[in-house]
Write a structure and sequence with these properties.
The protein is mainly α. The protein has a domain of 52 residues: SMc04008-like fold. It contains six helices and no strands. Helix 2 runs parallel beside helix 6 and helix 3 packs across helix 4. It starts with a helix and ends in a 5-residue tail after the last helix.
Length: 99
């Protein structure tokens, strides 16, 4: 497989993941962090870092708006719930060694 085809397939897989997560607003970021170690915010940060590495000026909120498809505050108001005590405890256990 040539490099351009590989790049296009990787980009398509990323878009599919982004679109899947956009439909699954019932899945909270904290649940993703507890199970996978990353969430939508991580994906938007990685997008920002890739842009910045290529000389494209982009801040955190711009990257989140691109990833979420709307301003982050709007997405949070529509979709994010308060984390339960159980979710917070699971987060602490899952990330106790992270710094």
């Amino acid at each position: 497989m040539d490099d351009q085809t590989k790049l296009e397939l990787e980009a398509a897989a990323f878009r599919t993941l982004r679109d899947h997560l956009a439909k699954r607003t019932d899945v909270q970021n904290i649940d993703m962090m507890n199970l996978t170690g990353f969430c939508r915010n991580c994906l938007s940060r990685w997008y920002q870092e890739a842009a910045n590495a290529r000389g494209i000026e982009m801040d955190k909120m711009e990257a989140r708006e691109i990833f979420y498809g709307m301003p982050f505050d709007q997405w949070k108001a529509q979709n994010q719930t308060d984390a339960s005590d159980a979710q917070k405890a699971a987060f602490e256990i899952a990330h106790k060694d992270a710094t």
